[in-house]
Amino acid sequence: MPKLLFSKIRIYEFKDLIRNKKQPITQDHLTHGPKLADLLENRDYLAAFRSFLQSEFSVENIDFWLACREYKRMTSSGRLSNKAADIYKEFLHPMAQKEVNIDHHTREKIKRSLVKPEVTCFDEAEMHIYRLMEKDSCPRFLKSEAYQNLRNTARKPM
């Protein structure tokens, strides 16, 4: 019987490969409402989305994502190091008050990078949380009364 050789691939990497395959470009926003990226660019919708997540006990997701965005805008390496440690302590440490749901491998990789953090050290976790909000929280928010009320009263509807 011939031997088959397989490269080792972690299950989460396989899932990411499947999830990240190219999706056909559609005009879903015309029929299904705006995308998460649209909501996050608008101050009013972002505030409403954050309140919605708070009501669902998952506000740590948007807070982590916003902290990562702020982290990427920093230029001082000393401040970068301090901010990275703060983000880890607030969102990634196993005893964090606002712990986000990421896999152990990613958490440990970030923990090791804190010795000399790069601007990209949170990218993997940030993308995971973004996709979680995009696939889970955002569709529910778009069906919520809070979103409907904001959309009906907004000066610049999405």
From TrEMBL:
InterPro entries: RGS (IPR016137), RGS_sf (IPR036305), RGS_subdomain_2 (IPR044926). Residues 35-151 form the RGS domain. The lineage of its organism: Eukaryota, Metazoa, Chordata, Craniata, Vertebrata. Gene3D superfamilies: Regulator of G-protein Signalling 4, domain 2. It comes from Anabarilius grahami (Kanglang fish). It comes from the Eukaryota. This is Regulator of G-protein signaling 21.
